[in-house]
Amino acid sequence: MSFPIALWQTTSPEGSDDTAFAALDRALKAAAAQGAVTLIAPEIYLPGYNQPDIPARAQPRGGPWHQRLSALARQHNCGIVIGYAERDGETVYNASVAFDAQGREIGHYRKIQLFGPREKSLYAPGSSVSTFDLNGTPAAMLICYDVEFAHLNRALAEKGTQLLLVPTANPEPNTHVSRLVVPAHAINHAMTIAYANYCGTEGDITYCGTSVIAAPDATILAMAGPSETLLITDISRQPDPALLQTQLSDYRPV
After folding, report:
1. Which of 78, 86, 111, 208 does the annotation list as catalytic?
2. What is the pLDDT of residues 81-105, one digit of tens each?
3. How many Å apart are CA 51 and CA 129, to the nearest integer?
4. Architecture of the CATH domain 4-236
């Protein structure tokens, strides 16, 4: 059975909800037309990763952003995985949420491995990983820097994760993450990993693009260049059995 997913590499909406939702509406419409089960968007797409007023703009889980995202998923009959700034009382998290094609929230995650002094000044770290069902496939989310940490990938592999969805905001010159790190974790942890980055410039950050979908045998199923693009790929391809790793069962602590 085919399992097409859409990876959306786009520019930041730079704090404009109207810009963000109009662009997302167009991307979802195109993804749904190609039969995509879900669309993965970048990190802190709402309100934009490198915006100066993140604490003031952050919204609660289930708030107006979520309501609009849920409505878009229902309208286009296509799921959404997207990053946003989440307010929980006085605390702000770098979060992601997953909606299914009926607009139901099926997954929620808070970034654990915060990157650099800016993120650490803005956000509290998350404390746990979790999995959810995406059209019968055990799925999970990490966010950007998280995916570079083996222990988080392993924790999800131990929970049976087969599909890892990763909103990201990876700046130049770090294309090694897409080209080397993501495929390595995909093969080492026997997962398909979909890594959705920004492109273009936002404030003092220039993003490196190169969004990627890597299979459990490290095959690159799709990779973007430096510009805006929508990648739609069937991830149901059977990996090469000769390349499948058994690290999860072979692991011996020292």
Report:
1. 111
2. 999 999 999 999 999 999 999 999 9
3. 26
4. 4-Layer Sandwich (3.60)
Domain boundaries, the chain: 4-236
Q: Are 42 and 168 contacting, i.e. CB atoms less than 8 angstroms apart?
A: yes
Rama region for 60: left / alpha / beta (φ>0; ψ in -120 to 50; rest): beta
Q: Give residue 1's pLDDT.
A: 75
Residue 90 among the catalytic residues: no
Query: Do residues 143 and 111 touch, judged by C-beta distance below 8 A?
Result: yes
**Which stretches of 53-96 are DSSP H helices?**
54-57, 64-76
Residue with tokens 């058994």: 246
What's the pLDDT at 238? Answer: 86
Query: What is the distance in angstroms between the CA of the first residue and the CA of the last residue of the chain?
Result: 41
105-158 pLDDT, tens per residue? 999 999 999 999 999 999 999 999 999 999 999 999 999 999 999 999 999 999
pTM greater than 0.70 (yes/no): yes
Is 228 known to be catalytic?
no
Query: Of the candidates 48, 54, 38, 36, which has an alpha carbon nearest to the alpha carbon of residue 97?
Result: 38
Q: Given the residues 43, 119, 148, 202, select the one marked as catalytic.
A: 43
Active-site residue, from 78, 86, 119, 144: 144
Query: Of 126, 102, 129, 131, whose CA–CA distance to 114 is shortest?
Result: 126
Q: Respond yes or no: is residue 78 known to be catalytic.
A: no
